Fold each of these.
Amino acid sequence: MDPDFWHERWQRKQTGFHQTEINPLLEAFWPRCADSVAPPRVFVPLCGKSLDMVWLRDRGHAVLGSELSPIAVSEFFRENGMSADQQALNEEFVCYENGGIRLLCGNFFGLTPELVGEIGAVYDRAALVAMPPGMQERYVDQLLRLLPGRPPMLIVTLEYDPEEMSGPPFPVPEETVARLFGSTYRIELLSARDTLESNAPLRAKGLNRLTEKAYLLHT
């Protein structure tokens, strides 16, 4: 999607995708993804101002997030009672950092492996579903380029009838997950739950079915 779309959403505070509680799938399944004895550094692409990053940090992880909107980044630190140190990394990216959380503000597709560094696990709740079907392959190609070590990933997706609603969020059916990641990872479906009743905004858009799924990707 055009970056201006997301900048406008944050400027107009049209951020219904932001969750005000920790995602229960993260709490339930993260131990399957990451070592709790030696917590690895975690990458959270298209992180917004997700509270999930605080949850990860509080469990001993160093957290690296990537986010397009400086509004989202600033609100994340302010709402969590932190003042962030800022550093321009290049013409495109500014780094905000404090409390074990480092956010790279800029276009995800401009990231390089050098900017990201070594990553031990990935948590994607909002990135893949934010991509239209025509961009999902490009997103995954970039993600894999940034992560040559092929760390395990916990990915959360949504499934619904695309004729009932145009995203975002966009549907990512199981066959798409298999097509995008199957040549690189083993894919394990951890959970599939009906979340339509708890999602009034998407019901209001006309959805009759909404399934949230969690996958563990590992080599």
Note: The CA atoms of residues 16 and 22 lie 15 Å apart.
Amino acid sequence: MKISVKNMVCNRCISAVQAIFDELKIEISNIDLGEVETKGQVSGNNLASLNSKLKSTGFEILEDSSKKQIEKIKNLIIQKISEEDIAENFILSEFIISGLHKDYSAISKLFSLNENVTLEQYFILQKIEKVKELLLYKEFNLTEISLKLGYKSVQHLSNQFKKITGFSPTQFLNSK
């Protein structure tokens, strides 16, 4: 049985969700960002308990097909950004189409209607969150970060960062 889980966006999330399934003694055959496949069917009572435990830790079971689709899109984007290997000529629409095998305009409309932000804006917001994370870890300089995340230049990254956060990358670091 496949169960779609909202807000599973990293390996720590996978571990947390795995622990909940283990605690409830629901056997898992596979677990990925946003999706858990169980070895057998899960009864209605167990599903209710599962959803309750998931909600208490910031997750929840998704039953609506459009919400499942949106979660898949978010997970694709987050996973791509977490790889820190975005080409300068990266095209989001082509990436989404290849990941979901669906019409981009329909996906884009669905996402915008439900999230109140376009796919492109969401992608940029997630990249900026990754820039913040990388800046705070101080493992890479701005040039290296801009290359990892597909920016054409450090200036482009800095301008986008300031537009979204209100701070330059340097001001952001100095405020921490």
Note: Residues 1 and 38 are 5 Å apart (CA to CA).
Amino acid sequence: MSEESLIEWTGGTLNPTLGCSKVGRECANCYAMSDAHRMAHNPNPAVSALYSGLVEKSAAGRLNWTGVVRTAPERLLTPFGWAKHKLVFLNSLSDLFHDEVPDDFIAMTFAMMKACDWHVFQVLTKRADRLADLAPRLPWPANVWMGVSVGVQEAAGRVDRLRAVPARVRFLSCEPLLEPLDLDLTGIHWVITGGESGRHCRPFDPAWAADIRDRCGAAGVAFFHKQNGGRNKKKAGRLLDGREHDDMPRPDRAPVPDAAERLKRQEEFRAAFGL
């Protein structure tokens, strides 16, 4: 399953893992909970079955992850069929490095991304310790961008773990940005900032993002400001000091193979992993 995305810094999403659990303050109002809850009520029974049980709703109407995590390996076949370059946010509704995702499935996912080298895959995690542990055993082709979420200062240690990962592009998602951050950007190539949005959003001060922007400028790091957040994020807009900030690294991807070559790679991937 692939969907075009409204997320400003990507082109589409692919979710071969589903479900999550909270790991810190940033997670309190996770947008993915409402998306997963909605998908659990999809009229297509194949879709609703995948998402069922991932999110629970309290008597007060608040959503929370149940901690159930599922893998959908058949979705890893989808990118082989895409005949145009894509910029893909992998696992927008989960975390590939969640403790409940098997090592073998993570390795399978990286093998898919390596085989589909005409796309760029953006992988984002809050589980930086597991990422650092597994990184030496994973392939790191140029089309895999690896990032960690850092919206509060106590999560800044994730940047140190990311720094040791041999990805061509290492990036930070400082969203929701909940306070000023003191970040060491050594070895980082891209930073995204954004305020929290939705009915339960917490306060955002544009000065926090502007400070990160200035740090990026001094360090030669690409800077992207996604949104100012708020209950009405469209009204709040994306302007920071009067302009949009859309910088990102230049994608490094191979030419699109013809249909026969894409099918060949897909069948080799199927055979290697018994799909």
Note: The CA atoms of residues 40 and 141 lie 34 Å apart.
